[in-house]
Each structure stands twice: as C-alpha cells, then as structure tokens.
Specification:
about 240 residues, 11-stranded antiparallel beta sheet, globular, 2 helices, alpha+beta, 11 strands
Length: about 240
C-alpha cells in the first residue's frame, strides 16, 4: 500500500513540475474589448510585404472578408467584400490613450474620416541654386491631414491616426485597393475637390445591400438620361 501511495505522490510531483513550466493562459478582458495593444501586431518598417491573398484567392475575396462599402468624397459608394493584408489588423494610434491599437476588420462597424485641416499649399523654389532665398512660383497644390474614427461592433470608438493602411475590396471578380493615409497631397494646379479621398468605410450585410441598391438605382437613372456607347456609361476605375 505504501508503495502505491509513494508512486501516486511521485506522479503528482512530476505533473506539478510540468504544469509550472507552461505559460499562464492569456487573461480575458472583463469588458469584452476586441482591440489589441500589442507592438508585435503592426510589423516593422522594411519587413517583406505580406501577400494579402492566399493561393487561389487573387482577384477575389478572402474567406475572412466582410461585406460592406467604401464611400469616396466624390459621393460614390463602392460595395464589396472588404479585408486587409493577411495576418494584419487595422493599426491606429489612439490620440486619447497615446498608444497604437490593432483592430481586426471583422470587429469594425464603421470607419469615418476626420479632416484635421485642408488647404491649398503654395509651390516655392530656390531663387538661386545653393542660395537660401525662396520665391513663390505662382502655382499651388491641394493638401489635407486626416484622422480616423473607428466604431467597433461593441460600441467602442477610437479616434486617431492611421499611417498608410491598405484596405482591399473584392467586387465583380476583381479587387480594388484603398489606402487610409494620414496626409494627402495632390498635383500642381488641381483643387481640393479634385483630390478624392476615402470618406467612410461601412461594414455589414445591410450596408453592402444598401450601396448595391443605390448604385443600381443611380445606374438606371443615368441610363434614361445618357446615351450608351463606348464613351458613356463606364465606371471610372
């Protein structure tokens, strides 16, 4: 009997040592937060780009893509299935907390663009090569600075800066790419209105169907007003 007791005690001791060597499981947030404050999620500058598609997915949506639409400042709404680079989340610098947060696209309800400033910038050049004095050329270009407001499925909002985050939208057998920049600069002699930007991204089946229906109705109205031919009725790419 003593032998069995000794054997059982030895097994328990070994099990305790093995368990002690395993890391504790990650804690679950009591608030149900679906963002991540983790520097390891954003990637390092200069690392090899990640293919946003898996094998066989080029030109179509990934399995984790979310239905929705991208609205441009021109008023156009582009419906499709939206995703970002594989193994990446939306990286945003939270202006209130002053930390980077990483949000899965599937956790986002809406992304709204906030214009911090926009103006026409003058073009300057050096009066003489190597000299300090600059002169105005008489030409200008449009420029903007953005912040973004993310509304998550759990109602939480984050306002901050996004530095060149690509979003992909699969539609009609092809994929469009939209980039969320913190700054935007247009060509010389163009206007702020000419400089189109992403006004919002709305996710969800209802948003996807809403944009599709609106585009169908607009297309019908345009067909009644405009002649159809090679130079008419084509959507700008």
């Amino acid at each position: 009997m003593k032998g069995w007791v000794g054997l059982a005690a030895g097994l328990l001791l070994i099990a305790g040592l093995v368990w002690a060597g395993e890391p504790d499981p990650p804690a679950i947030s009591p608030t149900g937060d679906i963002t991540f404050v983790d520097e390891g999620q954003g990637g390092e500058v200069g690392e090899k780009p990640v293919n946003p598609f898996a094998a066989g997915e080029e030109g179509g949506a990934r399995k984790d893509a979310v239905p929705g639409y991208v609205e441009l400042s021109s008023g156009a709404k582009v419906p499709g299935r939206i995703f970002t680079t594989r193994a990446k989340r939306v990286k945003i610098f939270n202006l209130q907390k002053e930390v980077y947060e990483y949000v899965p696209v599937s956790a986002v309800r809406k992304i709204e663009t906030v214009i911090e400033w926009e103006r026409m910038e003058k073009e300057w050049r050096f009066k003489e090569a190597g000299g300090p004095e600059k002169v105005y050329t008489g030409r200008s270009y449009p420029a903007r600075k953005f912040a973004y407001r993310l509304t998550l499925l759990n109602g939480h909002t984050i306002t901050g800066h996004i530095l060149g985050q690509p979003l992909y939208l699969a539609r009609e057998g092809k994929t469009d790419r939209f980039v969320l920049h913190d700054r935007q600069k247009g060509p010389l002699d163009t206007t702020l209105e000419d400089l189109v930007y992403v006004r919002s991204v709305v996710l969800g089946r209802e948003a996807y169907e809403e944009a599709g229906q609106a585009n169908a109705e607009r297309g019908t109205r345009n067909a009644l007003r405009e002649p159809q031919g090679p130079e008419h009725g084509r959507r700008a790419e």
